[in-house]
Write a structure and sequence with these properties.
There is one protein chain. This protein is mostly helical and 81 residues long. Helix content is 51%, strand content 7%. The protein contains 2 helices and 2 strands, in the order H-H-E-E. Strands 1-2 form a two-stranded antiparallel sheet. A hairpin with a 5-residue loop joins strand 1 and strand 2.
Length: 81
């Protein structure tokens, strides 16, 4: 409700400008600012979640793909032989 109210107040401001001149105006700035804040929030959240990722390499660099198996949780474990 408040967004539509804000837009109705911004539309008369656009009528005061020259009809032949195209500018983004205040509404364009507000939309851009909201999108920038959303991207910033998503990047901050992604950074937090990527910090939780625990990546460990296997200690044996010569281990082949056949010698390892993946369990249900996605962890790589040595295959049982």
């Amino acid at each position: 409700m408040s967004v539509s109210l804000a837009v109705t107040h911004l539309v008369p401001l656009a009528k005061e400008l020259d009809e032949d001149k195209v500018t983004p105006g205040v509404l364009g700035f507000i939309v851009f600012a909201v999108m920038a804040l959303a991207v910033w929030g998503l990047m901050k959240s992604m950074n937090k979640h990527m910090g939780k990722v625990d990546f460990k390499e296997s200690s044996d660099p010569d281990a082949s793909v056949e010698e390892t198996a993946t369990d249900a949780a996605g962890r790589t474990t040595p295959a049982k032989g």
